[in-house]
């Protein structure tokens, strides 16, 4: 193993630690289910580490890892044959009677509304509104025109507004 390969792998390891919280947020936004999100994060970390030599140090590590996550999640949905079936985590129903550990009703409503969005709308919401990527960055990551990101985000916002009511 060459010194450059070792350096690249170490840079990816260090970078993954730094972006892990963002990766988890993205995975939960994409998957909607805690177990699916955890599995997705593990798969993304494995792929990123095993393909560390493919990352270009002049490129943004977070975009590279987010692209791996997006592609891995799409692969998972295709393999399951359930592109629209994403459910709330079991924990959401288990703690419903205990106010001390139950998440606020608003959080459950937002999670349910997000889960009801089509996957391509959920991706744009996760990248732009949750992760703070610009429209151009999200378009590059999704390999679509900026106008597509804009229209998907507008439709997603409208759908969320319809589901959550005027207070949202």
UniProtKB/TrEMBL annotation:
In what residue span(s) does the RNA polymerase sigma factor 70 region 4 type domain sit? 108-160
Q: Which SUPFAM superfamilies match?
A: Sigma2 domain of RNA polymerase sigma factors, Sigma3 and sigma4 domains of RNA polymerase sigma factors
Highest classification ranks of the organism: Bacteria, Pseudomonadati, Pseudomonadota, Gammaproteobacteria, Lysobacterales
The record, for InterPro entries, names:
RNA_pol_sigma-70-like, RNA_pol_sigma-70_dom, RNA_pol_sigma70_r2, RNA_pol_sigma70_r4_t2, RNA_pol_sigma_r2, RNA_pol_sigma_r3/r4-like, WH-like_DNA-bd_sf
- What keywords sit in the KW lines? Sigma factor, Transcription, Transcription regulation
The organism encoding this protein is Dyella ginsengisoli
Domain RNA polymerase sigma-70 region intervals: 20-82
Family assignment from sequence similarity: Belongs to the sigma-70 factor family. ECF subfamily.
Extract the coiled-coil ranges from the record: none
Can you name this protein?
RNA polymerase sigma factor
Note the CDD domains from the entry: Sigma70_r4
**Which domain of life does this protein belong to?**
Bacteria
């Amino acid at each position: 193993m060459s010194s450059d390969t070792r350096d690249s792998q170490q840079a990816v390891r260090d970078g993954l630690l730094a972006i892990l919280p963002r990766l988890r947020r993205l995975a939960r936004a994409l998957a909607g289910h805690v177990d699916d999100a955890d599995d997705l994060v593990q798969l993304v970390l494995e792929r990123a580490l095993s393909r560390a030599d493919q990352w270009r140090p002049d490129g943004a590590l977070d975009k590279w890892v987010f692209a791996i996550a997006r592609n891995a999640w799409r692969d998972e949905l295709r393999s399951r044959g359930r592109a629209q079936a994403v459910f709330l985590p079991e924990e959401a129903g288990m703690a419903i009677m205990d106010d001390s550990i139950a998440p606020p009703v608003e959080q459950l409503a937002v999670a349910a509304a997000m889960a009801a969005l089509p996957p391509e709308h959920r991706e744009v919401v996760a990248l732009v509104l949750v992760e703070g990527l610009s429209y151009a960055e999200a378009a590059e990551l999704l390999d679509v025109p900026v106008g597509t990101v804009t229209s998907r985000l507008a439709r997603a916002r409208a759908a969320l507004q319809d589901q959550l009511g005027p207070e949202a």
